Amino acid sequence: MPRKILHLDLDAFFCSVEELHNPALKEKCFVVGGQPGQRGVVLSASYPARRAGIHSAMPMSRAVPLCPGLIIVPSRHGEYSLASSRVMEHLRQLTPLVEQLSIDEAFLDVSDLPDPAMQIARRLQAEIRDQFGLPCSIGIAANKLVAKTATDNGKASHRGDGPPFAILEVPPGGEAAFLAPLPAQALWGIGPKSAANLAGRGLHTIGDLASLTPARAASLFGRTGPELVQRARGIDTRPVETSRITKSISQERTYDRDVADRARLEDTLGRLSDAVGYRLRQEHFAGTTVRLKLRWADFSTITRQVSLPEATNQDNEIYQAVLALFHGVWKPGMLVRLLGVGVTSLGAPQRQLSFWYTGAEKEHRLLEALDGLRERYGEKVVYRGSEIKRKNHRTKKARPGQG
């Protein structure tokens, strides 16, 4: 029996979450991202903004002239992560065979459910709208590649004013016919540069790729050629993978303007370390390698790393390690454009709590309590004393001579 694979994509996800918190934004031309004079880029654009030609990853300085009165909303990744986790948990209640691709995208294998795939998709789309207030589009096919392409095609065909709420099904056996007329770039894994390379060889559509013999494909593209032809014909046997191997967890901060202030740089490293530690604990990992990424004002980038004697997922241990790395390369007056903190060599946490609390064990319990509060009320509901100290330091520097 053919598989029933759904690909679900939350429409304009960041903007949709912002509209939940501020309904006045609905039907407005707005974007989520940074300010135009501060190297900001568009992270997500509302549908009115998209009709004005604005799209994700566009520099904000280009987006503003396209839409007079454009509203710019700063991103709130904690809120987006919370909304995403609620939706993904709902998907897993439908089927355990869920493969999350990103914060707003997932595959579901519903082959074992008795209802037709279209009926399942319509019900699921309505549930996500009614229970979470979020729009989504769904592609249906017998494999992941075609289901993903169906979602993209359904959304691209939308011509209305609001979110697409698209559902497009490709029946089993119709994969090649569905893909054939689409441009080569519509094939999952082919980007603009690859598409330009293919066009230079006279291959403009997915059907053009599908018509190649394996030998011809190998002569043009090497060992990957025959696989490319298989994909162009809609053949994909990959399973929906419910677990993915995470190799590292990291966070970065790019400054609006280059920074040479030591306290501010250390403050950023503290915040990034806290964020990495939180993600490690949420995903039940600990790591033995702490990594610093640093980009100077001239755009040159360096990385430094250190191996710890014991795997950790505790914020302060990560911070102390990365702080030592930082002071090993930074000298007073040096301008910094970007800082990043990462932890690699991941595995399951091994630290066991004894009956008598050591300092590390008290820290572990404290972090568990903080994580619980943030999950329930949002990441800004509580601050550690060290973070408040950093805030006070910045305030005093901004107001010299005031108490």
Based on the model shown, name its key terms:
Dna Ligase, domain 1, DNA polymerase, domain 1, 5-stranded mixed sheet, 12 strands, alpha+beta, MutS, DNA mismatch repair protein, domain I, single chain, disordered C terminus, 403 residues, 4-stranded antiparallel sheet, 15 helices
Could you characterize what this model shows?
This protein has 403 residues and is α+β, with helices and mostly antiparallel strands. Among the domains are: 14-77, 3-Layer(aba) Sandwich (MutS, DNA mismatch repair protein, domain I); 177-232, DNA polymerase, domain 1 (Orthogonal Bundle); 248-398, DNA polymerase, Y-family, little finger domain (Dna Ligase, domain 1). Helices cover 43% and strands 21% of the residues. It has helices at 13-21, 47-51, 60-66, 77-94, 117-132, 144-156, 175-179, 192-200, 206-210, 214-221, 225-232, 262-282, 315-329, 359-377, 385-398; strands at residues 5-10, 30-33, 42-45, 71-73, 98-102, 105-109, 136-141, 167-169, 248-259, 286-296, 301-312, 336-347. The strands form three sheets. It has a five-stranded mixed beta sheet with strand order 5-6-1-7-8. A four-stranded antiparallel beta sheet has the order 9-12-10-11, with helices on one face. Strands 3-2-4 form a three-stranded mixed beta sheet. Helix 12 (262-282) packs antiparallel against helix 13 (315-329). The longest helix has 21 residues, at 262-282.
